[in-house]
Amino acid sequence: MARRPSTNSVSSSIASTSTLPQLANFKPLPLGASSLPGFKTPTSPWPPHSASLSAQPQQSATTNGIDPDELFTKYTVAEVKNVQLRLGADADAKQEELRLMVGERYRDLLQASTSIISIAQSSKRVLDALDDMRTSIPAAEEPHLLRRASMSGKDDSHLKTLQSLAAHLKLLLDTPEHLWRLIEKKKFLHAAWLFLLARVLHRVLVREDVEEGEENWKAHGIDEQFPLVQRQWDVVAQFRTQITHKATLSLREFSASVELYQDICSILLTLHLLESRPLTDTLTVFLFQRSKGLQASFSRTLKVPSNGQSSRLPNGSAHARPRKVVTREVRESIEAVLEIIAMTVGAARDIFRDEGFDRPSLMGRVLDFIQSESPTPNGSSLPPELQMSTQNLLGTLPSGSQHLVLPPSIRSYKPYIDLDSSSSSVSQAQLSDRLREWFHKAVHELQSAAEKWFLDLQTLREVWAIRTWVRNWINDSAHLEETEQTILKSAIDVLVGKQAAEIWRSALNDMEHAFRTKLDSASTALSECASESVIDASPAKHLFQAAPTPSLYEASLGSTSMLSSYQKYKSALQRQVAGRTPLLDGVLRVIENRAEALHKDLRAVRKDEGDSRKLTIQLNEAYRPDADRLCGAIVDILSFSMAKVEDESGRANASHSCRKQHLKLREETAVHIIVFFGRIANELSASDFLSNVSCGTDAGDEFQAKITALYELAVDRWRKYTVRSVVAKYRKTCLSLFTSGRARDSASLKQPGPSSSLMQALLSISASVRDLGPSKELSCGKSLAEATLKHFITSLLDGLHSQNVSIQLLWDLKFLRKLSELWGSEWREIAALLDHEITRLSQSEIIGDHLDDSLSEDILRTQLLLAPLLPPPLPPTDKPKNKDRKPSPLLQFGIPVVEQQVQPPMDLVKPGPRFGQLLVGSTAVR
């Protein structure tokens, strides 16, 4: 297109034309003069006034024409130097101004000079033409009126020819503007048709050979050479590449509108008409451009971290995105790609698939309509946008009335298409192969992109929700065939399986890591005897600690806050009753909460039936080995921690650098830690952790067996340490007295009965059993106490020798023999050992027959103190009927006889001197 001259250039040209007479009379300026108004030449010796010379007399105005010699005569050297500096500064400023003016306006000056020369030449030619007209007009002959009247019919024909010529030129001149408008509206088929029509107009206007039915411009006296036509066609010819390029790029764009197939068909027909491409090549171009659009949709998707841990925000991020927003973004990204894939294969099939005479392809119907001379049934079923003709095209253009004078050959123009040629059709086998190849490639790219998108999903529930939505979308899609739907579903199921495995493996690994970290921190707290570990070392104290109750302030905040506080209070009471001390509950809750969350995720997957059952079974089979590995890892962590504590305790005992008291303290701490590990194992055996993790049956049974063995190992280690400590203390405080001879006969005893050392030992064992923690069942606690008491008796008997013979020792053994009778026939071996030792000691001592009655009273008096070491109460039907003993709900072995003088079972501190001053009644008063 030719560039229209701007208003500024026209005005400058007019101004240049008006100055031509002045340029003719232009004279060179004298040296030192300026052609610019207001511009002073630097020849003046005095610059404008400034502050530096304001104090001087106003002699600068009169020194413009002074000779330099006279200047040096009138003024001092300093004043002359100052004048020199001012003149130099003025010259530099003018030089800079000229440099800027030339740099900024140099192009305009060149153009102005060129325009001035061109205008001068044009003016000269106009003057010459006027001179020729002045000489030729008077010499012209006057026309004959009669001849003009006789040629009126010929003038009418000449006028019609001129009108047709004007219509040709008008349409050709307006074609660029129409093409721009059609390209902007993305009506590429209309633009291509108009371009082809403009090419026909150009050929009609410029060619010399005339066919039948066409205008013969030379016969009407009109020259056939039109320079304007050729120049305009050069402008129009450039639109061919623009139309094809814009049409090709528009194939990348995606729109889910109903007119999508019509637009694609018109674009492909544009490429077929303008570039004479076979329809097979247009199909290739269409699929290639849709691949480009698919890649663009991948690049517009959300950014995700590479490790799948989207919860880890970068530095500076204040809040994480809501999970619903993340799920919606992933779903929208997959939906965009699925729509492109489905609409591409659907459009290709609807445009190129030919199913016979009853249902031809859309492209075939359009080509038939273009080449048909009359409307056909197939053409009537076409959309209006595809029913292209020159008449319809000219009717949509402005100034449509002027196009009526065009010849019928122009108004009925149709591009020639050979319907029988192979380039005007696509074989169905080739169409199927191209679509199958493109579809598989697109699905593969979707898998690669969606695998990254799925990394942002953190739960199985989110993954399964995406899968359900995608499957519903695929089932509802009318553009996909059954085989294509199956391929897409399989691809999505593969992605779901991968991400599900990553999610549960990450959850199981996190569970293992959290358990290991929490166990190590709890072990460190127990070893350092931190304040929070005191209660864990003695669970019985935690049972009697009051849980924090909801405050009135929380109740005033509303029902929601009150309900939350009540739930916290309820949970604290439940943990307290269950014996969940702070450290123990912290370790167990780490894996129990995670296991419960994982179980909810798995339940959301497993409850889906129907066509998802196969995938659910596969996921369950893939999950079980990972769950089994976690169960084994939990057991290994506990076992390794216990072995580590044992090794550290053994190395400390083998070292001789530590004092005995310090070694004892370290061993006691090690036993507390091992007992803590045993309590964890005991809680895990009865916890919901195993059922929530949902490992295999064999792995679950193995886990239960191993975790029970760890608990028994910890209890055995505690039992040995406790019994060894109690027996050592008993021997230290009691047996030394026996060997010294102070308690070797009956006369030295104030009252027959168990010694205070024995009672202290039994109470220590009872306290240790209680501090071990509450058992889930009473029978388990009693079996633990029973085994500990057995071990105590056997350890005590192993340390007795023949020289340790005393009446008090005999009483202690008799008391233990009485305790063994309470446990029934299962203690036959222990009773036999005690009987053997009692028989050996009785050879040197004479004990009265009242010994059994006295020991029975001791049992009755101490049954509350020794309750953890006594057997559980018998059912009402199995209780012995004894008329002398009254039944009591608290005293299961009977009520002791009330006596005035009772020997206490332990050594009590004597009352202080101020004890008598207390207001307490005496025994006699009572």
TrEMBL record:
It is a peripheral membrane protein. The keyword NADP does not apply. Residues 305-314 have a biased composition (Polar residues). Residues 34-65, 305-324 are annotated as: Disordered. GO terms for cellular component: Golgi membrane; Golgi transport complex. It is found in: Golgi apparatus membrane. Residues 49-61 have a biased composition (Low complexity). GO terms for biological process: intra-Golgi vesicle-mediated transport; protein transport. Its main location: Golgi. This is Conserved oligomeric Golgi complex subunit 1. It comes from Bondarzewia mesenterica.
